[in-house]
Write a structure and sequence with these properties.
Number of strands: 6
Number of domains: 1
Strand order of the largest sheet: 1-6
Order of helices and strands: EEEEEEH
Shape: globular
Bound molecules: zinc ion
Low-confidence stretches: none
Largest sheet: 2 strands, antiparallel
Radius of gyration: 13 Å
Number of helices: 1
Helix content: 10-25%
Length: about 90
Amino acid sequence: MDNIRIRCPKCEWEPDGRPYWSCDRCFTCWDTFKTAARCPGCGKVFKDTQCVDESCNKFSPHLDWYEGLDGVVVTLKKEIEESWSVSK
Ligand SMILES: [Zn+2]
Ligand SMILES: [Zn+2]
């Protein structure tokens, strides 16, 4: 993950590893970038991620948050999309 940066595509806010996101199904709070947008509580996948920055607060596709060397990011996004198609 060294060559990949995660940031809001709209305002460049960078997640700091805290559990800002909460699931609307089981109310788990977690860091959505640790689990590639999947709720660790119930397995629901959140394909859109909301920015935590108060002046932004916008939803963007989860995959748009990843930025880095093309090949690396493409591979990572493919892995994430594959993990989404597997249900727990
Ligand atoms: Zn933002
Ligand atoms: Zn959940």
